[in-house]
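Appendix B. Chain record.
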Amino acid sequence: MKYPNAIKKTTNKIIDYANRGMNLESDLNLTNTYYLENNIAVIYKKPTPIKIVKVSFDNKKNSTIKEAYFKRPSTTDYNGLYKGKYIDFEAKEVRGKSFPLSNINVHQIEHIKKVLAHGGICFLIVRFTLLNRTYLFKGEDLIEFINNGKRKSIPLTLFDEKGYLIKEAFMPRLNYIDIIDIVYLGGKV
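C-alpha cells predicted for this chain:
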C-alpha cells in the first residue's frame, strides 16, 4: 500500500558506460559474418592494439591481465573489401538527437581523410538508440561538417538530410552493403 505520509525511498541511478555501443557492434559483427559466409564482402572488426604489462598466472590454464595500456591510438572500428573497393568505417551509438563530434578522436578524423584521399570508401554508422534508427553517414559529409566548424554536434536533421537510413532485418541484421552499392558504386535504389 502507498500511504500518503510514507517516507519515499530514493535510489541513485548508476549510469554504466562500459557496454555503450555493444548492441550496434554486435549487429555489425553478425552482419559482417553473414557477408563473409555468403561471399558478399570481407569486412572485419579491427582489434584494439594494447601492450600487456602485467599478467597473473593462477595456474597453467588460467591467466589474468592485471595491467595493460594502448600501444597507439586506434583508427576506425571496421575495414575490409567489397567488390574490389576498400571499406573503412567507425560505428557509434548515441542516446540523444544529435551526434557529438567529441565521440570521434582527432586521429580518427585524420585517418578518415587519408582513406578518402586514397580513394577508399569511408563512413560512419551511427545508431540513435532512443529513436531506434541507424544511419550510414558518408566520410565526405563528416569532413565537410567539421570544416564548417559551426557546431560541436551533428543534428539528427542532417542525418535525415544527408545520411542513409539502414534497414534492419533478420539477416543481414544491418544491410549497409545495399547503401554502398547505391551511393558509391552506382547501383539502383
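Further analysis of this model is presented in Appendix C.
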